Amino acid sequence: MDLEKIRKKLHKIFHEPATHKARVTNGTISFLIIISIAIIPIHIVSRLNGMTDVDNLLVIFDKIIVTIFTIEYLLRVWSSKNPRKFILSWESVIDIASIIPFYLDKFGILADFPFAFETFLLLRTIRILRFINMYGIESEVLARMENDKNFYKIPGEKIERIIQRHPIIFMARMIMPLVFTSIALTALIISREFNWNAWGIASSILFFSLAVLFFIKAWIDHHYDVIYITTHRVILQNHELFGSETNGLMYNAITNVIPSNKGFWRWALGIGHIEIETANRDGTVSFRSVRHPHKVVGYIAENKIKARKRELANHPNKDELLAQENCDFGKSKTF
């Protein structure tokens, strides 16, 4: 067994977020986080009502979750190219924050603070934000996409930016998986009290399946519905549970780009929509709930100008074409 090969494979899974395996792994860990957060209300109800059996079951479940998180953290450290740097990084702090409450509670450190354990469990939501936000790792993601054989590129094309939906949209879509998971676990506990009632088990399976579907849909929407801004075009990618659609818009076909973030909350949170008007048969293409839509429009406009300059520089009659454009611009200005 070659440990170095295993370490390299684990590095791709845990430290290269743009890979498919990394997205699946992070998605699985995120759903486990959702489950661990969903049991918080059950924890509180069981303790308030003295339901010792239920509380003991939840503790066993927490042990399983924390064991998985601990193993995952150790593998992240071991597979890192610089383990010491990773341990001291913000990512490591977030990982530790997701598991430390269990160990603090186990050694009785939180015993004097009612529901402190449940409160600290909410820190696990920060881990989900780390998995869905490319802030600080854009260069790694872009480098990965540049070498992706499945991503069709025009000769000489370079991906400069990847635009996702705002993270708060993903977190809002986590409400349904949380609710359904909590209901599923509650139904399972109730069915246990009635000698594993078949209806309770069936209800638990149904609600848990709905939680998984809602989570997968939200995960796909956030990670795979993106805008690639390249040197040659704007690529809008849209994935569904079954199938996908990719729309590549050359800069010379884009006639207008309109940002919109009307409303106090959209303005305050920096969430908005962009509409790209084109001369193609598609007409207007829109992308909703992006972060800082005006900045996105600025990136597209800047690249459109650069693309036009390259086109003029390579044109055999560039002086005549430039003179004609200046003339047309002057006419439109006087009009």
Write the SSE topology.
Elements: H1 3-15, H2 20-38, H3 40-48, H4 52-79, H5 83-87, H6 90-106, H7 116-121, H8 124-132, H9 138-146, E1 159-163, H10 167-173, H11 175-193, H12 198-224, E2 226-230, E3 233-239, E4 244-250, E5 254-260, H13 264-269, E6 271-278, E7 284-291, H14 293-313, H15 318-334
Antiparallel strand pairs: 1-2, 2-3, 3-4, 5-6, 6-7
Helix pairs in contact: 1-2, 1-4, 2-4, 2-8, 2-11, 3-4, 4-6, 6-8, 10-12, 11-12
Strand fraction equals: 5-15%
Q: Which structural class is indicated by helix and strand composition?
A: alpha+beta
Contiguous helical run count: 15
Termini Cα gap: 75 Å
What does this structure look like?
The protein is α+β, with helices and mostly antiparallel strands and 335 residues long. The protein folds into three domains: 1-132; 166-213; 226-334, PH-domain like, CATH 2.30.29.30. Helices cover 63% and strands 14% of the residues. It contains 15 helices and seven strands. It has helices at 3-15, 20-38, 40-48, 52-79, 83-87, 90-106, 116-121, 124-132, 138-146, 167-173, 175-193, 198-224, 264-269, 293-313, 318-334, and strands at 159-163, 226-230, 233-239, 244-250, 254-260, 271-278, 284-291. The chain has a four-stranded antiparallel β-sheet with strand order 1-2-3-4, with helices on both faces. Residues 328-335 have low confidence and may be disordered.
